Amino acid sequence: MTATPVTVTVTGAAGQIGYALLFRIASGQMLGPDTPVRLRLLEIPAGVRAAEGTAMELDDCAFPLLASIDVTDDVTAAFDGTNVGLLVGARPRTKGMERGDLLAANGGIFGPQGAAINAGAADDVRVLVVGNPANTNALIAAKHAPDVPASRFTAMTRLDHNRALSQLATRGGVPVGQVRNVTIWGNHSATQFPDIAHADVAGRPGAELAADAAWYLDEFVPTVAKRGAAIIEARGASSAASAANAAIEHVHDWVLGTPEGEWTSAAIMSDGSHYGVPEGIVSSFPVTSSGGEWEVVEGLEVSDLARERIDASVAELLEERDAVAGLGLV
Ligand SMILES: NC(=O)c1ccc[n+]([C@@H]2O[C@H](COP(=O)([O-])OP(=O)(O)OC[C@H]3O[C@@H](n4cnc5c(N)ncnc54)[C@H](O)[C@@H]3O)[C@@H](O)[C@H]2O)c1
Ligand SMILES: O=C(O)C[C@H](O)C(=O)O
């Protein structure tokens, strides 16, 4: 193995997503079987010991691609030379916490992390924000990194995308591997719009299934959009392995490209030129990737129904942006 190692920083490394994510990165599932990785695990001081334990286990796997592991609570050290940043650690909403408090607490995390990325990350740095509220946390990080192209900051809607593929496969009675081209629009929240109008369900147009409006709007859309809450209700903890899987797939496709004829969903910085989504929010679109750049899939017809749903989710993102702007975070 002669390739130069890629430096991957994972924040919230001692958390449940971190535990499901790190072993897959180190085994090559994220960046491919020929790319060695240097792992940097960032935690708050109270999480450092547990992250060190995870690092011991990573050592014990003897992964040939794992070049080194560093554990730190120093945000500057964590992002020094980083090529890929997975921002997972976030402040969860706790009882009695107002929305403004949640945004402010996360601003205190993602602002400094964005600044550290700006100061020290590699020129090709690519960032995926997983920690909620993911879209607005990505916006905060991007705004604190003025020297890094805004297109390098993304938020995760791949889990919602995968949830939509799975629900659609069940409805169509086909293997999930034969379903493609669903789209998640908007925010990673209950306002997101999982759109199947252009999907291919083992050769059957998704629009045919969407024509059953009672199923589509009253079952499919809420099942996908509220799946995170359903997992919390069932498991007593939020999704972890599926979230880690989606993060792996997001970065894999970003760096190595999406398959021919297929798109995925990712929340990217809107430049105002696609599907009527205003500039300056991190919103989910149908995207392909080649050469390490996301590109929005153009020319999809947007029905009146889709327009209304996209606008509603975008309105929520604009509200979140205004709230963090009011707090001086962007
Ligand atoms: N976008 C998505 O699809 C999606 C899906 C699932 C979960 N999430 C979100 O991902 C986040 C992490 O989930 P989890 O289950 O791993 O949570 P968790 O509570 O198990 O772990 C979070 C970890 O982050 C650490 N942390 C907190 N602040 C930090 C900071 N400033 N720097 C470094 N580390 C810090 C904590 O110590 C903790 O170990 C949550 O915000 C969750 O809501 C997003
Ligand atoms: O952590 C959450 O609130 C839910 C999570 O974002 C998910 O979609 O599973």
From TrEMBL:
What residues does the Lactate/malate dehydrogenase C-terminal domain cover?
A: 157-322
Q: Where does NAD(+) bind?
A: 12-18, 106, 113, 130-132
The record's listing under InterPro entries reads: L-lactate/malate_DH, Lactate/malate_DH_C, Lactate/malate_DH_N, Lactate_DH/Glyco_Ohase_4_C, Malate_DH_AS, Malate_DH_type2, NAD(P)-bd_dom_sf
Which SUPFAM superfamilies does this chain map to?
Answer: LDH C-terminal domain-like (SSF56327), NAD(P)-binding Rossmann-fold domains (SSF51735)
Q: Which Pfam families match?
A: Ldh_1_C, Ldh_1_N
The entry's active site is: 188 (proton acceptor)
The Lactate/malate dehydrogenase N-terminal domain covers which part of the protein?
Answer: 7-147
Q: Which PROSITE patterns match?
A: MDH
The entry's substrate-binding residues are 93, 99, 132, 163
Q: Which reaction does it catalyse?
A: (S)-malate + NAD(+) = oxaloacetate + NADH + H(+)
Output the superkingdom of the source species.
Bacteria
Its EC number(s): 1.1.1.37
Q: What class of enzyme is it?
A: oxidoreductase
A single Gene Ontology MF term assigned here is: L-malate dehydrogenase (NAD+) activity
Which keywords does this Swiss-Prot/TrEMBL entry list? NAD, Oxidoreductase, Tricarboxylic acid cycle
Q: What's its job?
A: Catalyzes the reversible oxidation of malate to oxaloacetate.
Family recorded in the similarity comment = Belongs to the LDH/MDH superfamily. MDH type 2 family.
Q: What is this protein called?
A: Malate dehydrogenase
| Native organism | Flavimobilis rhizosphaerae
